[in-house]
Amino acid sequence: MIDKEPIILAIESSCDDTSVAVLKGFKVLSNCVHNQEIHRTFGGVVPEMASRAHIQSIVPTVLAALKNSKVEFSHLEGIAVTQGPGLLGSLLVGHSLAKSLSLALSIPLINVNHIEGHMLSCFLIETNVQEDSGLEFPYLCLTVSGGHTQIVIVKNWNYFEVLGQTLDDSVGEAFDKSAKLLSLDYPGGPLIDRHAKYGNPDRFAFSKTRMNGVNFSFSGIKTNILQTMQKERNINPNTLKNDLEDWCASIQKSLIAPLVLNTKKAIFSTGIKRLAIAGGVSANSFLRDEITTLAIKENIEFYIPPLSYTMDNAAMIGAVGQFSMRNGAYDDISSSAQARITSDKWKYSDI
Ligand code: KG4
Ligand code: ZN
Fold this sequence. Notes:
The protein has ten helices and twelve strands. The chain is α/β, with parallel strands linked by helices. It has two domains: 2-126 and 308-341, Nucleotidyltransferase, domain 5 (2-Layer Sandwich); 139-305, Nucleotidyltransferase, domain 5. Helix 2 links the parallel strand 4 (78-84) and strand 5 (109-113). The longest helix has 27 residues, at 244-270. It starts with 6 loop residues before the first strand and ends with a strand. The model has no long low-confidence stretch (mean pLDDT 95). Bound molecules: 5'-O-[(R)-(carboxyoxy)(hydroxy)phosphoryl]adenosine (KG4) and zinc ion (ZN). 5'-O-[(R)-(carboxyoxy)(hydroxy)phosphoryl]adenosine is lined by residues 145-147, 172, 175-176, 187-190, 193, 279-281, 283-284, 311-312.
């Protein structure tokens, strides 16, 4: 770590988790995440409740992040904050606080695109690690979250070429909706992962959706999972409970397969030999194993963020913030949160 690297505060409040991190360079000095348990009862995020919960938790989370990092307000040199995409009410809470801090402390404001945060999360390093991540541009990134499923060439910290993406549901949504059918709590992805470890992935088979290039579609598989469950229940009424582990393993296998297949296609068609995975679903143990096997077989340099930087977190917002600090790319105090973001930093091209 270079001693003169800037210390920044990063804030993420795009959905249902309030998160604040302190970074020196790419080293994460603290990364506090306050999970909003309230949504579990509803089986999904309730936007109005999420914004109210952010208002309650944001200041305590900022204070906790500073305390854990032993950094004081006066040490901060910049504030990075998620500008979007996400739930507008939730984004506004974090963004307004970031603007207030930027004004009060006279330090630059840096607006960050949440997805760019996920894609650059592999640059982050833990406090106890001395060397940097070793990751360099360009690299391929498989971004798999509750809102996105994309394969992107990360050409630089501010230049992204999307090669393919989902045309309907994200893979995270498909995990969560399948989990709901199995009466598992929200978010269901981690629970499917846990139960799948003890199940037979070949017990139930679901239809595959064939897509052009490296695009994805999960709505067909999702419907087919429901139909297969209904058919099976006619024969075996308690199957969802009694065969839970086999259902989880089979669902997980069918949702992860297109991710691995398209990643392989993208490696072959671009010739890029450096790969990262990011986003909440990159915590999935089966995906991690499959991608690791692929990377070893194809002799690919492979980067995978530590588990704490896969689900939504402020440290990844800080990673983008650090690139912005290095390049003097600051934002105006009159800027605002945006539920959707279009940017000329993003280019779309099918392969
Ligand atoms: O990146 P993230 O925290 O939030 C968004 O930006 O959307 O991703 C959340 C998604 C949820 O759908 C959650 O079920 C899924 O990531 N997820 C997982 C696992 N951990 C989180 N899906 C499958 N296996 C996991 N271990
Ligand atoms: Zn996310």
